[in-house]
TrEMBL record:
<dbReference type="InterPro" id="IPR018934">
    <property type="entry name" value="RIO_dom"/>
</dbReference>
<dbReference type="Pfam" id="PF01163">
    <property type="entry name" value="RIO1"/>
</dbReference>
<dbReference type="InterPro" id="IPR000687">
    <property type="entry name" value="RIO_kinase"/>
</dbReference>
<keyword id="KW-0808">Transferase</keyword>
<keyword id="KW-0418">Kinase</keyword>
<feature type="domain" description="RIO kinase">
    <location>
        <begin position="7"/>
        <end position="247"/>
    </location>
</feature>
<comment type="similarity">
    <text>Belongs to the protein kinase superfamily. RIO-type Ser/Thr kinase family.</text>
</comment>
<dbReference type="GO" id="GO:0016301">
    <property type="term" value="F:kinase activity"/>
</dbReference>
<keyword id="KW-0479">Metal-binding</keyword>
<dbReference type="InterPro" id="IPR051272">
    <property type="entry name" value="RIO-type_Ser/Thr_kinase"/>
</dbReference>
<keyword id="KW-0723">Serine/threonine-protein kinase</keyword>
<keyword id="KW-0547">Nucleotide-binding</keyword>
<dbReference type="InterPro" id="IPR048148">
    <property type="entry name" value="Prot_kin_PA4780"/>
</dbReference>
<dbReference type="InterPro" id="IPR011009">
    <property type="entry name" value="Kinase-like_dom_sf"/>
</dbReference>
<keyword id="KW-0067">ATP-binding</keyword>
<keyword id="KW-0460">Magnesium</keyword>
<protein>
    <recommendedName>
        <fullName>non-specific serine/threonine protein kinase</fullName>
        <ecNumber>2.7.11.1</ecNumber>
    </recommendedName>
</protein>
């Protein structure tokens, strides 16, 4: 197909050879399948702020660090240059998160390059080499639902131990990929590989220690996993992994090896009604967005 204008510069720089097809158009970006030599990858073109529908961006960008002091001042003033720098920081946030999480062993696509507002990264595929489906496009047996839920809860822990909260984790931005050479779902050797979840869409990822909304976002992320997999394994609906994980994190007791129970007994404290109301509003907005995506799909 003809290369979109935003990908033309990558072709001219020799970063990609050809554009195969459009893979998807999301709320903050468009993704294309591209060829790079002998490899098939994907190119994520970020939409400009005026064309994005991602909600509550201010919550996600709170306390994000900008190395250049001139840029930081301009962003604080809201000047034209500041808005441009803020947009660049938003776009590069996913790149930074991907490298950080990949180094921590989290299952995310491998990033290769970021050029002119385009992220070039691994194309996550299924066993046939086609683009891997999103979780919301797949049905699961109760056993598989429990297995993938446990895997993703462990990934959330691994992300948090790396200092990152996804912030928008749900069945719509997790792919069910074929992971070669990893054995079966029980970890057995020699079976060639298995299906496993890969987490995508990280421009809204937040710093766990530096963002005042990190706890609320993590609880929502884990609740989304519980609600989705609970459709297939109803016993998961009563689990409380989110509060348990955050409590261990705040206490300095969370590690990648920390055993979790899914049981949490909250301590008695004054209720933050503003936080409760905000959580209700978030849940209502998330449900509305979910219904729109399902209707469009």
């Amino acid at each position: 197909m003809k290369a979109p204008p935003r990908l033309q510069s990558l072709i001219e720089e020799g970063l990609i050879d050809t554009v195969v097809r459009q893979l998807m158009s999301g709320k903050e970006a468009m993704v294309y399948v591209v060829r790079c030599g002998d490899e098939t990858r994907c190119a994520k073109i970020y939409k400009e702020a005026t064309h994005r529908s991602f909600r509550q961006a201010v919550d996600y960008t709170e306390n994000r660090k900008v190395k250049n002091s001139r840029s930081a001042r301009a962003m604080a003033k809201g000047s034209k240059f500041g808005r441009q720098e803020q947009e660049a920081a938003w776009q590069s946030a996913e790149v930074d998160a991907l490298y950080r999480l990949a180094a921590a062993g989290v299952r995310v696509p491998q990033p290769y390059n970021f050029h002119d507002g385009v992220l070039l990264m691994e194309l996550v595929t299924d066993a046939h080499g086609d683009a891997a489906p999103r979780l919301n496009d797949v049905s699961f047996t109760p056993e598989d639902a429990r297995t993938h839920h446990a895997t993703l809860v462990a990934e959330v822990v691994r992300m948090l131990c790396a200092g990152v909260v996804h912030g928008d984790l749900s069945e719509f931005n997790i792919l069910l990929a074929y992971l070669p050479g990893a054995g079966g779902v029980d970890g057995a050797e020699g079976e060639g590989g298995h299906d496993g979840p890969v987490i995508i869409d990280l421009p809204q990822a937040v710093d766990a220690a530096g963002n005042n909304h990190a706890q609320r976002m993590l609880l929502r992320d884990v609740a989304n996993l519980r609600d989705f997999f609970g459709q297939f394994a109803p016993e998961l609906r009563t689990t409380q992994y989110g509060p348990e994980i955050w409590s261990l994190y705040q206490s300095g007791l969370l590690s990648n090896e920390t055993p979790l129970t899914g049981i949490y007994a909250p301590t008695h404290a004054d209720v933050d009604m503003q936080a409760v109301l905000r959580e209700i509003d978030d849940a209502r907005d998330e449900d509305a967005a979910r219904r729109l995506r399902m209707a469009a799909g």
